[in-house]
Design brief:
The complex is a heteropentamer of chains A (635), B (487), C (238), D (89) and E (156). By secondary structure, chain A is mainly α. Chain A has helices spanning 11-29, 35-58, 83-104, 106-110, 114-132, 137-155, 161-191, 196-202, 208-225, 235-241, 244-254, 256-270, 272-277, 287-307, 312-332, 336-367, 383-397, 403-417, 421-445, 462-480, 483-496, 517-538, 571-577, 584-608, 612-631, and strands at 64-72, 75-81, 279-280, 285-286, 507-508, 515-516, 551-552, 555-556. Chain A contains 25 helices and 8 strands. In chain A, β3 and β4 (285-286) form a beta hairpin. The radius of gyration of chain A is 27 Å and the shape is globular. Helix content of chain B is 76%, strand content 2%. Chain B is built from 20 helices and 2 strands. Chain B has a two-stranded antiparallel sheet with strand order 1-2. Chain D has 3 helices and no strands. The chains are: A mainly alpha (635), B mainly alpha (487), C mainly alpha (238), D mainly alpha (89), E mainly alpha (156). Chains in contact: A-B, A-C, A-E, B-C, B-E, C-D, C-E, D-E. Chains A and B meet through β1, α6, α7, α24 and α25 of A and α6, α8, α9, α11 and α16 of B.
Chain lengths: 635, 487, 238, 89, 156
């Protein structure tokens, strides 16, 4: 241990103590003048402890135990943190640190109930620590319920539409939790206990039917949190109506808890080989193939929904669902390259998605709206936010200088190497959609015509721009030198029991072609540098035009005429994919609601009708008949 | 005065004595009558607590009435389970004393007789004696149900009376069959004879009839249509006690029948079926009800269905789960009804009520989380015990029951958090806010505190319940304690 | 469900229930049921309680708590009916006064009914009859004059006092057994010589208490339902 | 002895059928008293004197009176007032 | 067991079953609450008859000891316990009947009718609207928001 702890407290205990203290302190002193800084300090301490734990794990410690032990009603509950849990924990504490830093400044003071935002953020971190370090299935379920309800607490702050979105989320989350509860009960039935090792021991003699139900329940239960396709309707509104930094935290990390649990249950516990053995008879389709195709659809469909959004936050959150598909697809390829690609994408996504969301909220902070039709031309007014958003969308689209490219490249490579052409086509189509929609995002906010009322907009305060730029910087650095991030990914990959991917600072060395980002970025920067040199030094006859010099097609336009809209941004594409938007998933969801209402009315009728004596008579006769039958009449 | 086993009859005899004299005292002064009634209820609670240590070390206190030994005379059997429910009933009646406008000497008399009937129901060890005490409880419930003096109150109580009388006739037919088949009415004696006398069509028919009879008060599926009407029409404090405590007493009777007389898989299957249908019916109907009273009435039908499923699982794991669900519901439901007392009428009309009385809204959220079964609240541990027992017992019936309960939990969360959303909504201007006075909310807050205390001390509580369940699920121990030398 | 559909459905199920019950009862050995408890009691009833009417012995000694519960049920029903019908029945002027025959017969019947009721209550432990049957006859006895003279005010005061004390006596006798360290409702005061009036110890006292309680309660019930006013003249509200 | 039982039972079942069949409530209440009376005779035959006495005094006597009083109170005394008609909400 | 006693047993049980069935029919079919109460009385009489018949023994005497007052003198006795149970059951029946009739009186006074459906409808209307009673299809206020129809950005 890099630093000795006062008594026999392990570092995991220390982290739990910090998170718990943070929850209580921030709930009490969140709105105090120094509340924001206290929050940043506490989350920073948590991040530091996590990094220390990382170093400890890298030095070969198998897993970090916690002295928190509970035996309740004959069930032993223990908490230990391994590499996989540590990897997601790093993302959690990092995201919490950046969002609390963002809230520390002017943004925090503007909020009506900063106290609740700080408190729920710290509560989410605490619950995620408990989930990530769960030592057995029961601990996993309890942690899972805590995380779901903590996210619910975070979502209902804003009231109005946020409450409706949170209510809808709660229903989905609870349905998922009940599927998970059924799964751990099935395991308990087979293994006689909730322990991970008990489950592994009982796996060989489980019938294929039970394995299929276990697979379906785990994938379904955790898939809801990751908003895989049939259950994707709740995430966008829920995550975008949550105020400011909390939304960034939810986007960056909260959905990934589903991925962690999927990896834990399907890969670590059940294992790729058992899953490969599960085949649909006569068709050769494996269970992982089904989940891979769900991931593929989740990559494509939400991305093209994002394309149609007119609200910046909705656009980004719909993309969040799409990116989740990439991560799951990468991992399901089951080769070291694919798994490393998937996990790296989790890290990269967290960095650029958070930068993007924080940038969008900076725009909201200044202009008061996130509606793409109401914005435009802010590049001159908010240059730093523009830079952060630019680097973010390059990462989101997966283009070279940023880290997004590295992980997407690895996923494409893994798909191609393992001969899965259809899935790789889906990946490319997804990326195409992403590129189109991010351009719409940056064009409508920063480029084009500046609105009259936004003339005096000032840049967002340093307390908001600095976190964005640091995040974008991390994105660039890990893009430039992916080896740093890959060493973090190794911890998780080792804990998953998958062979490690040989890599160096610049990138990946493979028999089928290696990637060295040092060269790629070096050449790119060099080319841009030469181009800039030629453009600025040699051709210096620049003609200075101010933003309102709008001559278009021989017709003078005064400043107040609007010609900058996001409506019908891609008319051709809209016509092509228009017919696909029949919304049959929405109708399915609506159908479930109506089914519950109709059967409820049916039972109301039964309870209020005056036929009860007849019902009693019928049940008595059937009961006697059954009793007679069971007892053998006249025997 | 050292308490011997024979003092087990006091929780029944004392309230009866005072109830008989109360009309006389009431003629002198109403206040004195009310005070005397409450003192008696307190005395019963104290006696039950004093008897607890004697019951816990000796396993159970057995008292033969009139000095006549087991199969001949009537026997009172007070084990920890029974004493626990007697204390719960007494404390419930004290905590939810009828309000001034619904109170009179006659109501106080009915209150005491409900205490006597309820205590007798769980303490008695004789089948017909249980039927008599069940009738006392039932008739007291008809009276209390109509004590609101509204048309709806009279109508609901009448329909409940007719349904319960039909059930009681069935139960009496069942008891007659048992007596004709086995020749004795004492539960211990019957449990020994059950092996060869009560199996086959005769025993099962008796079981079906008795379940339909005692099921009326235990809110089992076909015979629980009275629940929404009576719980809505009766004064809310009466409903709190009925839903909270009295329905559990009837379920304890069904538990005794199951454990001692009918360990037959067909009988367990029948109860499981009724329980599962009850859970589904209760939750779906609650999802569609428009006022809080009806919602909580249907929710208590679902919880009792849960208990029926738990008790239908053979062995002490099922009994433990059932007792855990019963105790949890015993704390949560009355608190819910305390809230429903002030938040009357359409749920839609309650927008913003949570903001005017944040304490009440906070209590509502805590209770909802616990009844849905969110860790670490006790509701979760009760449901976990139920599911574990069902899965360990295996069988298609248990699995479908678990699936139904899991689906019902989602619906339960749907209608409870729909109300939370409305409570925290923004109140339309111009409507007087519904504000709780602390006095009104006190019983609810007390029960909320009990819930939190149970959350903290779930481990020791769990061990205590496990021991109690193991003891009350053991038919042989019951027979050996009651029958002299076990003939 | 339309009326006749419901009638048809219930008829169908009733026939099913009937068939099952009949085949079930066939399996019951008629007249030879294993009555070990019944025969044991029949054999030892005389020495234990001294009552020659074994049913009364069962009712008051062996299953005394049942009878206490029984009296409590009647008391609960009376109280609840009082609660529902509201207050003591203030018998305002009824409709048409009773005819001459009724008034004459009432005056004649009242003493006989009183004697008959008292006899049945007092000899409960010797000959068939007892508290319940005698109480019912006493209730009829007190109700007949009310039929004859509907206008006469019914004072519930006396009935309540009698009721309260009778019930209290029953429970006190029960508790007396408890004081001496014995069980509840132990038969006291020895068995006496079987057959004569003052035998069977405390059983006749219990039956006397029951007789008075049942009598006053049923009389009160009938008076309350009768006097609660005709629909034409709305009765007093609670 | 068997013939006595069969005759009493026949009377009882006929009266029971009358209770359900008759339209007028007063006649139905009278039929109830007849059922109780026949039942108490049956109990006497079955060597259960206490029960016979109780059934006669309480069943035929008091129940009959209570039911009749309620009929008068509820206005179902005369057949005309029988409102068995449907009442649509 | 003489043929005569066997016949008696069959007749008694059949009679008890018929009475129970008629009582049940009287409770299930009619719509007037008063008729249901009558059905209830019949049902309880049927159960009482069955109880007494269960305790009967053909060759035994009534459980009342006569002159020589010695248990052996009287010979085999009919089982006294079911008779005690029936006594209690009869008085329970009358108690519940009395309370039932009091409630019938009050319901008639409150609602003017004794038809179960009418009473049920008026009760539901009095204690707050019930979905089945209010206009069909009126949606409960906070029904599952999802069921509130498609929102703009929703898609497949």
């Amino acid at each position: 241990m890099p630093f000795a702890l006062p008594f026999d407290m392990t570092s995991l205990d220390l982290l739990m103590a910090i998170a718990a203290a943070a929850t209580v302190l921030l709930y009490l002193f969140g709105t105090a003048r120094l509340g924001g800084y206290l929050a940043t300090l506490l989350h920073g301490a948590a991040l530091a402890v996590t990094v220390a734990m990382g170093l400890d794990l890298a030095a070969g410690a198998g897993a970090i135990p916690s002295s928190l032990r509970l035996t309740v009603l004959g069930q032993q509950l223990a908490w230990t943190l391994d590499g996989l849990g540590w990897f997601f924990l790093l993302l959690t504490t990092g995201a919490a640190f950046f969002s609390s830093w963002y809230m520390a400044g002017e943004w925090g003071r503007v909020q009506q109930r900063a106290r609740i935002q700080h408190g729920t953020l710290a509560l989410n971190v605490l619950t995620m620590v408990l989930l990530l370090s769960a030592g057995d299935l029961l601990g996993l379920f309890i942690g899972w319920e805590f995380v779901s309800w903590a996210a619910f607490a975070m979502m209902i702050q804003a009231g109005g539409p946020a409450t409706q979105a949170a209510y809808r989320y709660m229903l989905y989350a609870l349905a998922g939790a009940m599927a998970l509860f059924a799964a751990i009960l099935v395991v308990h039935g087979a293994a006689g206990g909730f322990g991970f090792d008990q489950m592994r021991a009982a796996l060989p003699d489980m019938s294929t039917g039970m394995l299929w139900t276990l697979f379906a329940l785990f994938a379904g239960g955790f898939g809801v949190k990751m908003a895989l396709v049939p259950t994707h309707l709740w995430q966008a509104p829920a995550y975008s109506y949550t105020p400011g930094a909390s939304s960034a935290f939810l986007n960056a990390v909260s959905a990934r808890m589903g991925l962690f649990a999927l990896i834990l249950s399907l890969v670590k516990l059940i294992g790729f080989d058992t899953l490969a053995g599960l085949r649909i008879p006569m068709t050769g389709i494996e269970s992982t193939d089904i989940l891979a195709w769900v991931a593929a659809i989740t990559m494509v469909v939400p991305t093209y929904i994002a394309l149609m959004q007119t609200d910046a936050r909705m656009l980004l959150t719909w993309h969040g669902i799409g990116q989740g598909g990439y991560m799951l697809l990468g991992i399901l390829v089951a080769t070291p390259l694919g798994v490393a690609g998937g996990l790296l994408h989790v890290f990269n996504y967290a960095t650029y998605q958070m930068a993007l969301i924080l940038a969008v909220f900076a725009v909201i902070h200044r202009t008061g709206t996130a509606d793409l039709d109401e914005l435009g031309g802010l590049i001159t007014r908010m240059p730093l936010t523009y830079v952060a958003l630019l680097m973010g969308i390059i990462g989101l689209a997966g283009l070279p200088p940023m880290n997004g490219f590295v992980s997407k490249w690895m996923i494409y490579k893994a798909l191609i190497v393992t001969q899965q052409p259809l899935l790789s086509i889906a990946a490319f189509v997804g990326t195409l959609g992403t590129i189109l929609s991010v351009y719409k995002l940056i064009h409508n906010i920063f480029l084009g015509q500046l609105r009259v009322e936004h003339r005096e907009i000032r840049e967002a305060p340093w307390s908001m721009t600095l976190p964005m730029l640091v995040l974008a910087g991390i994105g660039f650095v890990t893009g430039f030198a992916p080896g740093l991030a890959l060493s973090i990914v190794d911890q998780a990959q080792a804990a998953m029991g998958v062979a490690l991917l040989p890599h160096h600072l610049g990138g990946v060395v493979l028999a089928t072609g290696s990637l060295n980002m040092l060269w790629v970025v070096g050449v790119l920067v060099g080319a841009i540098g030469v181009g800039a040199l030629i453009f600025y030094v040699l051709g210096n006859r620049r003609f200075e035009t101010h933003q309102y010099d709008n001559y278009a097609g021989g017709h003078f336009l005064s400043a107040d005429i609007r010609y900058h809209f996001s409506h019908e941004f891609y008319p051709g594409l809209a016509r092509v994919i228009g017919p696909w938007y029949r919304g049959w998933v929405v109708r399915m969801e609506h159908g479930l609601g109506v089914l519950a209402e109709v059967s409820g009315d049916l039972w109301h009728g039964v309870f209020r009708a005056a036929y009860t004596p007849l019902y009693v008579l019928i049940v008595a006769v059937l009961g006697l008949f059954w009793a007679g039958g069971a007892g053998g009449f006249g025997s | 005065m050292t308490l011997t086993a024979h003092h087990v009859v006091l929780p029944v005899a004392l309230p009866l004595l005072v109830a008989f004299l109360l009309p006389l005292v009431g003629r002198l002064s109403d206040g004195l009558a009310r005070l005397l009634a409450q003192l008696t209820t307190l005395a019963v609670a104290v006696i039950a607590l004093l008897l607890w240590p004697a019951a816990s070390d000796g396993g159970a206190l057995v008292s033969a009435m009139g000095g006549f030994a087991a199969p001949i005379g009537i026997v009172f059997y007070a084990d920890k389970l029974a004493l626990m429910f007697v204390v719960a009933l007494a404390v419930g009646l004290l905590l939810f004393r009828p309000r001034r406008e619904h109170d009179s000497t006659k109501v106080q008399t009915l209150w005491l007789l409900l205490l006597a009937g309820g205590s007798g129901l769980v303490l008695s060890g004789d089948l017909f004696n249980i039927f008599v005490f069940y009738e006392i409880t039932a008739v007291a419930t008809y009276g209390l149900g109509a004590s609101a003096h509204t048309g709806a109150g009279y109508g609901a109580s009448l329909r409940y009376l007719l349904l319960s009388a039909l059930g009681s006739a069935f139960a009496l037919l069942g008891i007659a069959l048992v007596y004709a088949a086995a020749g004795t009415l004492n539960l211990a004696d019957l449990s020994q004879l059950a092996g060869e006398r009560l199996t086959g069509p005769m025993g099962l028919t008796a079981f079906v009839l008795m379940v339909l009879g005692f099921g009326v008060k235990a809110e089992l599926f076909p015979v629980n249509t009275w629940v929404p009407e009576v719980y809505t029409a009766a004064p809310t404090r009466v409903t709190a006690v009925l839903a909270g405590v009295v329905s559990k007493l009837a379920m304890v009777v069904i538990l005794r029948l199951l454990v001692l007389l009918f360990q037959d898989p067909a009988a367990l299957g029948f109860l499981l079926l009724l329980g599962a249908i009850g859970v589904a019916a209760g939750e779906l109907a609650a999802f569609r009800s428009r006022d809080l009273h009806r919602t909580f009435a249907y929710s208590s039908i679902a919880q009792l269905g849960l208990m029926a499923v738990a008790f239908s699982i053979p062995g002490h794991a099922g009994v433990l789960a059932g007792i855990a669900v019963a105790l949890h519901h015993l704390v949560v439901k009355p608190a819910f009804f305390v809230l429903a007392d002030r938040w009357r009428g359409e749920i839609a009309g309650l927008t913003g009520a949570g903001r005017t009385s944040p304490l009440a809204a906070g209590l509502f959220v805590l209770l909802s989380l616990s009844i849905i079964g969110i860790p670490p609240l006790p509701g979760f541990w009760a449901k976990l015990m139920l599911f574990k027992a069902a899965i360990d017992a295996g069988g298609a019936g248990n699995l479908t029951a678990v699936a139904i309960i899991l689906a019902a939990t989602v619906i339960e969360a749907a209608y409870l958090f729909r109300v939370v959303g409305i409570l925290y909504g923004t109140a339309p201007a111009g409507r007087p806010p519904l504000r709780f006075t602390l006095g009104e909310l006190a019983p609810g807050l007390l029960l909320g505190a009990v819930l939190i205390a149970a959350t903290v001390s779930v481990a020791p509580l769990g061990d205590g319940l496990t021991a109690m369940a193991a003891d009350s699920a053991d038919a042989a121990a019951y027979a050996s304690r009651v029958l002299p030398g076990g003939n | 469900m339309k009326g006749n559909a419901r009638a048809f459905a219930s008829a169908l199920f009733l026939i099913g229930l009937g068939l099952m019950l009949v085949t079930l009862f066939e399996a019951l050995p008629f007249g030879g049921a294993p009555m070990q408890v019944g025969q044991a009691i029949a054999g030892r009833a005389l020495e234990d309680t001294g009552a020659t009417n074994i049913v009364s012995a069962v009712l008051l000694a062996y299953r005394g708590l049942d009878t206490l519960g029984e009296v409590a049920i009647l008391f609960v029903a009376a109280t609840a009916a009082g609660l529902v019908l509201g207050g003591a029945g203030r018998a305002e002027a009824q409709g048409t006064p009773a005819g001459f025959i009724l008034r004459a017969a009432a005056a004649l019947l009242f003493p006989f009914l009183l004697v008959l009721g008292a006899y049945i209550v007092i000899h409960g432990h010797l000959t068939p009859g007892g508290g319940f049957q005698g109480g019912a006859i006493l209730a009829a006895a007190f109700f007949v004059p009310l039929l004859a003279h509907p206008a006469s005010p019914v004072n519930h005061g006396v009935a309540t006092v009698v009721e309260a004390f009778a019930g209290a006596v029953f429970v006190v006798i029960g508790l007396a057994g408890l004081v001496g360290g014995g069980a509840f409702l132990v038969p006291l005061l020895g068995a006496g010589t079987p057959g004569d009036l003052f035998s069977a110890g405390s059983l006749p006292l219990l039956y006397l208490a029951i007789g008075l309680k049942v009598g006053s309660e049923l009389a009160g019930l009938m008076a309350r339902i009768a006097a609660a006013g005709d629909p034409a003249r709305q009765g007093g509200k609670a | 002895m068997i013939w006595l039982v069969l005759v009493t039972m026949a009377v009882m079942l006929a009266a029971a059928l009358a209770v359900i069949g008759l339209r007028s409530y007063l006649a139905a209440v009278a039929a109830i008293s007849v059922v109780s009376l026949a039942l108490s005779v049956l109990f006497a035959i079955l060597r259960a004197p206490d029960v016979a006495l109780a059934e006669a005094a309480v069943g035929a006597g008091l129940s009959g009176v209570l039911l009749a009083l309620t009929l008068r109170r509820v206005g179902l005394w005369t057949p005309a007032a029988d409102d068995d008609g449907e009442d649509r909400p | 067991m003489t043929m005569d006693a066997e016949m008696l047993g069959k007749a008694l049980y059949a009679g008890a079953v018929c009475l129970v069935l008629l009582g049940l029919y009287g409770m299930v079919v009619p719509r007037n609450l008063m008729r249901i109460v009558l059905g209830l009385v019949l049902l309880e009489s049927g159960v009482n008859l069955f109880l007494v018949a269960a305790g009967f023994r053909a060759d035994a005497a009534a459980p009342i000891l006569t002159a020589p007052f010695t248990a052996q003198a009287a010979g085999p006795l009919v089982d006294p316990v079911p008779q005690a149970l029936v006594l209690t059951a009869i008085v329970i029946g009358v108690g519940v009947l009395a309370l039932g009739l009091a409630l019938v009186v009050r319901v008639k006074e409150a609602y003017g009718t004794l038809d179960t459906h009418a009473v049920a409808n008026r009760m539901a209307r009095e204690t707050g609207a019930d979905p089945a009673v209010t206009a069909a299809g009126a949606r409960t206020p906070g029904a599952l928001p999802v069921a509130a129809g498609r929102t703009a950005e929703d898609a497949p």
